[in-house]
Design brief:
The chain contains 13 helices and 15 strands. By secondary structure, the chain is α/β, with parallel strands linked by helices. It has two domains: about 25-35 and about 280-395, Aspartate Aminotransferase, domain 1 (Alpha-Beta Complex); about 40-280, Aspartate Aminotransferase, domain 2, CATH 3.40.640.10. Strands 2-10-9-8-7-3-4 form a seven-stranded mixed beta sheet, with helices on both faces. Helix 2 (about 60-75) packs parallel to helix 10, helix 3 (about 90-100) runs parallel beside helix 4 (about 115-125) and helix 12 (about 330-340) packs across helix 13 (about 370-395). The longest helix is centred in the last third of the chain and has 29 residues, at about 370-395. About 50% of the residues are buried.
Length: about 400
């Protein structure tokens, strides 16, 4: 490999949300990689810093073309320059869109279990969550389209938040599935907001399908949220974009983002994005291969050493969704116990809705030594958790 993903970087005392933990703890929860970003991006940031003057910034032509070329070459979607609007992040964009395109008391549909901040973007703005749980069968997730159509047919449902690829289950939605979603949403006058922030983090040999690329219906009735931040570990730079093909819809989104003051870049947001999408491809491909090996290591270890847990098949993201129903299914209780006993910090699944109460989410975007440490702690925690349950059951007899 040309790039180094094995070196362990000490992130303690660096102002890191992820690593704001006790000294003995190993955080594998929030979607934040422990790898330094690509050297090409760091060089671009250093060049900007060396300039020394940090005034107000504009969105440059290079920024537009970086997005356009990357999506065309990597994902087969020809984005037009006019479609793109800069924003400070996917979450601020989603919250702004919810405020602009819906009214208080209306419902926003989400397919659970799903990224937990979707709930915040809806409820914090006085809208109602309409959960449409994914179907979980034989260890995999899919969409029950009869259930989805029934939910979309509610006149109070006016917006759908789609996660593509789907966090936390790691699902890449295929073209037919996306087409059906698009047709149903168009039929019932529901606008689709497609969160595609994890799109570049697919397993080697796999790629995602942009929602807007599937059909004219999907394109003209959708807003796509994209960013280099997950793939290149740039969340702290607050840089993203929304792509909105329909001009009327785009004006509303643009107006909302500007009203909310979420459409102005900081001095590093533009050059970092340009460097990522013009020079970061080789680094990203090596990263994807490394993460895939981490995911394989976790699956093999759990299958061999922790039979009470199973790993949901995943072809995207660096997050693994662990089915803990064999441990009694209380993910919050299990996560709390494991953290208290071993220091391993995982995300409890109930915050993602749906059947998430029986799951844990594990972030494996870190050097292999940390993954191995995490697996050892997970095994230890599960063994102790099982021992306590055995003792409690024997006392009841």
């Amino acid at each position: 490999m040309k790039y180094d993903f094995d070196t362990v970087v000490n992130r303690k005392d660096s102002g890191s949300l992820k690593w704001d933990v006790a000294d003995n703890e190993l955080p594998m929860w929030v979607a934040d990689m422990d790898f330094p970003t690509a050297p090409e991006i760091r060089k671009a940031i250093e060049k900007r810093a060396d300039h020394g003057v940090f005034g107000y910034s504009v969105v440059t032509d290079e920024w537009y073309h970086a997005y356009m070329n990357w999506w065309n070459e990597r994902h087969g979607l020809k984005i037009e320059k006019d479609w793109l609007v800069f924003c400070t992040g996917v979450v601020p964009a989603i919250s702004s869109i919810v405020r602009k395109l819906t009214t208080p008391g209306e419902k926003v549909l989400i397919q659970t279990p799903v990224y937990n901040i979707f709930f915040n973007s809806i409820m914090n703005n006085g809208r109602l969550v309409r959960e449409c749980p994914l179907e979980y069968k034989n260890g995999e997730y899919d969409i029950d389209f009869d259930r989805l159509e029934k939910a979309l047919s509610d006149p109070q449902v006016t917006l759908m938040l789609l996660c593509n690829p789907h966090n936390p289950v790691g699902k890449i939605w295929d073209r037919d599935t996306l087409a059906k979603i698009g047709e149903l949403c168009y039929k019932y006058h529901v606008v689709v907001v497609s969160d595609e922030i994890h799109c570049d983090l697919t397993d080697p040999g796999y790629s995602y399908i942009p929602f807007a690329s599937v059909s004219d219906v999907c394109r003209d009735n959708s807003i796509t949220c994209i960013s280099p931040t997950k793939a290149f570990n740039l969340a702290g730079l607050q840089t993203a974009a929304v792509a909105v093909p329909d001009s009327n819809l785009r004006h509303k989104v643009w107006r909302g983002l500007n009203t909310d003051e979420a459409a102005e870049p900081n001095d590093f947001a533009i050059p970092a994005t340009v460097a990522a999408f013009t020079e970061g491809g080789e680094w990203l491909d090596e990263l994807r291969a490394y993460i895939y090996e981490n995911k394989t290591l976790v699956r093999d270890f759990i299958n061999r050493e922790i039979p009470n847990i199973s790993v949901v098949p995943s072809r995207a993201t660096y997050l693994l969704w662990l089915d803990c129903s064999g441990l009694g299914g209380d993910g919050e209780k299990i996560a709390s116990f494991i953290r208290r006993k071993t220091g391993l910090y995982l995300s409890e699944g109930d915050r993602y809705g749906g059947n998430g109460v029986s799951f844990l989410r594990m972030n494996v975007a870190c050097p292999r030594a940390r993954v191995q440490d995490g697996l050892s702690r997970l095994k230890q925690g599960v063994l102790e958790y099982n021992s306590i349950d055995i003792i409690k059951n024997s006392e009841r007899v």
